[in-house]
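job 3f2a | input accepted
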Amino acid sequence: MKIGIMQPYFLPYLGYFQLMAHVDIWVIFDQVQFIDKGWVNRNRILHPDESKQWQFITVPLSKRGQFDYINTLSIHNDAKWKKQIRGKFDCWRKKAPYFKASMELLDECLALETDSLGDLLAHSLATTNQYLGISTPLVVQSKENMPIDSVEHAGQWALEIAKHYGADEYINPCGGAAIFRQQEFDENSIQLKFLRPELKAYSQRRNQFVPGLSIIDVLMWNSIEEVQRMLSDDFKICSQNEVLSE
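job 3f2a | predicted structure (246 res):
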């Protein structure tokens, strides 16, 4: 069984969903410290001004402590943040060929009435998965009461969770390769692998392609069939040695 474990991100980029589609179970790792200015409560979409390339869409947060976990964070729902996010896409209404369908998906992702950031993120990931035809089960780590005690280093979280589910293969994005110790996975008969996305250019009706944007941007410009092809074809699976030697 292949397992993937990552923090929940807000409408993440294509590579996140490539990994989700490639594994047999996905653990939403939300009982971990929130990092400011990351991808948990914000992402990037195309900017109408080509000189600026992209702009942020953000879920505003209520007052929080420096070391709060993702699953404990609250959304600042007094602000009209959903309308503001939706408004940032309006400039593409007449240009993006799949604008209507992608905005309907966006509305569904934001439809959950909740103050919990964790619940909103889990809902939006599940909603997007269903739209993309990804059948991988999603498990929210903080709600599973996993019998995992303290770990000695960051790379052991994935190892312990993989052991808990009886996985024999753990796949991670290439960016986190250095935190894992290959020997620990070998000793537990778990293959350690890494997924490297190949973010090929698609038409954004502008001179310069901007890669790595939110999945909503990908869906605005590509048919669902083409996006599903990207999910299954446009990546490589590598070993830790291959990643670290680059």
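job 3f2a | The two ends are 28 Å apart (CA to CA).
job 3f2a | closed
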